[in-house]
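Predict both folds.
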Amino acid sequence: MPAKKTYHHGDLKNALIRAGVEILAGQGIGGLSLRQVALRAGVSHAAPYAHFADKQSLIAAISTDGFRRLYEKLAAAAHANSADPRQQLLETANAYLEFAAEDPAHFKVMFSGILEQEKDYPEFVEASQKNYELVVEIVQTCQSAGVLPLGPAERTAISIWATVHGLAALALERQIPHTLLEQVSMRELLLHSLETLFVS
C-alpha cells in the first residue's frame, strides 16, 4: 500500500506528529517508530531526525500537541460558561470526555506513561501543567461561589480529574456496560458522578 502523503512544505514537524498519531490509532505504541512515521508522512527515513532525536522525542511531541489541543477545548468550555461556576465545571468536564472520544489515540498516549523522562521535555511539562492549573482554577471559582466545599483546591481538583478521567478511560476501553449506556449517555453519567461533589 502506498505511503499516505501528509507532508506539506514547511510543516514537516506537524506532519510527522499527525503521522505518529495515525500509527498509534491503528497499530498502537508497538508500531510507532521514526522510520514508520517517515513512511506514513511520505518523506525520507532521515527527515524525522531534523526534529526528533529518537522515538521518545516523538512521543513527547505527540503528547505535547495533545495537551495543547485538550487545553484549547477545556479553556473554550470554561470561558463559555464563566458566568455560572457550577455549569462551568460540568461543561469543562464534559469537554474532557468529548476530547477523549474524538481523539482516542492522542488521549491514550498522553496518559500512557510511556514518556520515560518527562522533565527532559519542558514543552510537554508546560502543556500538561496548564491543564491541571485550569482545573484548580475552576475548583477555586466553584469554592468561592459555594458550589464546592471549602478545602485544599488541589486535592479537590485531583479528585474531580480522577473521576472524569476514569469515565473517559472506561468508555475508551469499552468497560461501561452497554446495558447502562442504552439507558443513559456519557454526559448523564458524568453529571451523576460530579453531582455528589457539589454543596447541596
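Second protein follows, with its predicted C-alpha cells after the sequence.
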Amino acid sequence: MITHIRGKLVEKNPTYAIIECNGVGYYLNISLHTYSKITDSEAIKLYTYLNIREDAHTLFGFSDKVEREIFKLLISVSGVGPSIGRTMLSSMTPKEIQHAIASEDVATIQSVKGIGAKTAQRVIIDLRDKIVKTYDISEDSMQINNTIKEEALSALEVLGYSRKQVEKLVQRIIQETPNISLENMIKQALKNL
C-alpha cells in the first residue's frame, strides 16, 4: 500500500489534488478539510489510502494521519463507502467526527449528506468504543458536554429559537471550547444568532 506521497503540487481543487513525484502525477481524492490545510507551496506531503475495487483503484489523500485513520474507521462500517467517508470529512473536521461518535450524537452524523438515521446509528455502534479508546476521549467530559448542550438547547428554545436552528451552533461552540460553562455557551450562542 502507498502510505504517503511527497512531491510537487501540480493542481489543487476542493475534491482532488494532483502531486507530481519523480515524473509521475498522482491524482488524490481529498476532503475539504485536507483542501483547507494544503498550502500553495510547491512541496507537499499527503498521507494516502488506496481503495481497490474490481473496477477502480482510487487513491485518497489526507493532510494528517489522524484524518486518514478516521477515514479508515468510517469506511469499515457497513453502508459507509469511501465517497460517504470523504463527504463526512468534508462536512466536519476529524475532531468533530470523533466527538459526535463518542457522544453518540446521531443528529450531527445524520446531518451529513448521504447518511440516514440507521447508518448514523450503525456508525456510532461500530465505532464508539474504538474512538473513545484510540483518541482517549473521557466519558465524563462527553457526559458533561451532553448535559450542557441539552440545557443550552432548552434555554434557547425557551427564548424563541427553534432547536434545528441552534443545534449546529451549540455543537460548534462545544467543540471550539470544550470546558465552557452553560451561561457562557448561551451568551456566545445568542451573539452568533
